[in-house]
Amino acid sequence: MGRGDGEGSAGAGGDGPAAEPGKAMVTELWLAPDEFQEVAVVPGSCVTFCLKEFRGLLSFAEASSLPLTIHYDEPGRPAIFTLDDSLMEAHLVLATLLDPESDSQPPPATNGRVSHPPAPSDDFTDDLESYMAALESSACEGEAGAPPSPTFSLHTPRPAESDPEEEEDGAVPGTPPHKKVWDGH
Predict the structure, then answer these.
(1) Higher pLDDT, residue 176 or 6
(2) CA-CA distance, 178 to 2, in Å (whole number)?
(3) In the chain, what are the domains?
(4) CB-CB neighbours of 116 under 10 Å
């Protein structure tokens, strides 16, 4: 999460609908490189995700004095937050918002320090499932080594077939659906 001047931003969107920006709560967080043990970002990059879930993970990381690692590649793709210790490992995957201005622009060339492993040909969900299965099997086998690092496809996953009743007009692709409330009747 950084810019060329060494500072970065992480926007945290609220639960308001994207069609009504005046009703959405937006918090912008600026992070300087000296707040991190290690920084490797593409200059000018930013990411927007839900602050509610991130605060919980951040509170846990601070209380347990565990280092927090954040991996993301571009807006609209998931951000992966990792806490790692000899006794436990936690991964939180959060959806990020797609930048509406980026729809008309090609993705920027990455001449920065961020490098990505070669993209596998499978969809993101297949990669995530195989990674989680590898984590579970390595935990069951009692391996002393570190679990495999995640590799996720850089390609946009194919959209799943959706139920017409659940589709909402004006929904931005790549964003989580609005929360639905059940009144008990």
Answers:
(1) 176
(2) 29
(3) 1-102 (3.70.10.10), 119-159 (no CATH)
(4) 11
